[in-house]
Amino acid sequence: MTDDEIPLCSAKGCALPATFAHRWNNPKIHTPERRKVWLACDDHRASLGDFLTARGFLRETVPFDPNDADGLAV
């Protein structure tokens, strides 16, 4: 990511900046410590989180800081 790129929400068609990171994994295919990340804006935090929760995938939701180099690396 370059300095002028702003990470966007992962919701389909959304162009808002990300403010939260949903960290998740699918226990059928990922090791327990593996985390994938969906970014969410304020408007889509609940809907993306609900989708992951309904499938038993959501592990945590944390504030997203685009200046944190390790923010996505888990």
Question: What do these coordinates show?
Answer:
There is one protein chain. The chain has 74 residues and is α+β, with helices and mostly antiparallel strands. The chain has a domain at 20-63. Helix content is 14%, strand content 22%. The protein has one helix and three strands; from the N terminus they run ββαβ. It has one helix spanning 45-54; strands at 20-24, 36-40, 58-63. A three-stranded antiparallel β-sheet has the order 2-1-3, covered by helices on one side. The longest helix is centred in the C-terminal third of the chain and has 10 residues, at 45-54. It is globular. The two termini are 17 Å apart. The relative contact order is 0.27.
Query: Helical percent range?
Result: 10-25%
Number of helices: 1
Low-confidence stretches: none
Q: Which series of helices and strands comes N to C? A: EEHE
Rg result:
12 Å
Report mean pLDDT, rounded to a whole number: 89
Strand tally is: 3
The strand line-up of the biggest sheet is 2-1-3
Beta-strand proportion: 15-25%
